[in-house]
Amino acid sequence: MKTAVVTDSTAYIPEHIRKQFHIHMVPLQVVIGNETYREEIDITADEFYDVVKTQDKLPTTSQPPTGLFVEKYEELAQEYEAVVSIHLSSGISGTYQGAVSAGEMVESLDVHGFDSEISCYVQAFYVLEAAKMALDGKGPDEILARLDVIKQSVRAYFMVDDLAHLQRGGRLSSAQALIGSLLQVKPILHFVDKVIVPFEKIRTRKKAMKRIADLLGQDVAQGGTYKAVIIHAKREAEAKEWQKELKTQYPNVEFDISYFGPVIGTHLGEGSMAMGWYKV
């Protein structure tokens, strides 16, 4: 059975990698002022952060129209028999459900939805594994079984740098933002049951990043081989420096660097950092 792999833009997989592994992408949208942009198509992450600084109001985001998924699946039905469609957590977006609903509308294709229960390049871990298996001729059942195994070891922790940004988005009161800023609090967040929740409050950025690195170390100490990714919101130089340090600390872990694009960046803000990993 010839299987295609579909994901959405919040996996933030570079175009050349999508082409290399035949990954099909459906974009989410970000609305800035009166303009609507398709993420990863009409606007880059760097452009987004620059434009946001000029706006009084935070951007808004929206999931892909169901019809866009239908269109993509009908196009794939000309060449493929099945699709594994991997999307950001259903707890923070309706994208996964939209993909599943669209799949039910396309009778000529066997569509299997997969809720990554996470987002960004940690979501891409699933996508890349699925794409490689599909290219090797594996069918959806075997691919989904492997993704379920990966899910058992996936971890991801996000550090939010700008409490004022969270406050502007209505996710933090003005008083909390003021007190947090005075204390230099850097909240570490993670996904639990498909939604983002606080993990710990750390006093400084440096300590928060060290805490995340220590959490990786706890898993690595259990044995096995790990892949990890550092994710940044317009902090590429800092991400590269952190990668250098982590490679020295954990020489057996393979580290990549990715970014928070417009949709996720809207909710976390410039300066955010994260790391995710899984056992290979």
Q: What is the number of E strands?
A: 13
Secondary-structure-derived class: alpha/beta
> What's the CATH topology name of the largest domain?
Hypothetical Protein Tm841, Chain: A,domain 3
Largest pleated sheet:
6 strands, mixed
Quickly count the domains. Answer: 2
CA-based shape: globular
Q: Percent range for helical residues?
A: 40-55%
Head-to-tail CA distance between termini: 25 Å
**Elements, N to C (H/E):** EHEEEHEHEHEHHEHHEEHEHEHE
The value of Rg in angstroms is 19 Å
Provide the β-strand percentage band: 25-35%
Low-confidence stretches: none
Strand order of the largest sheet: 10-9-8-13-11-12
Mean of all residue-level pLDDT scores: 92
Number of helices: 11
CATH level 1 class label of the largest domain: Alpha Beta
CATH architecture label of the largest domain: 2-Layer Sandwich
Structure description:
It comes from Peribacillus huizhouensis. Pfam families: DegV. The protein has 280 residues and is an alpha/beta fold. It has eleven helices and 13 strands. α4 (95-105) links the parallel β6 (82-87) and β7. α3 (66-76) crosses α4 and α5 packs antiparallel against α6 (140-151). It is globular and about 55 Å long. The two termini are 25 Å apart.
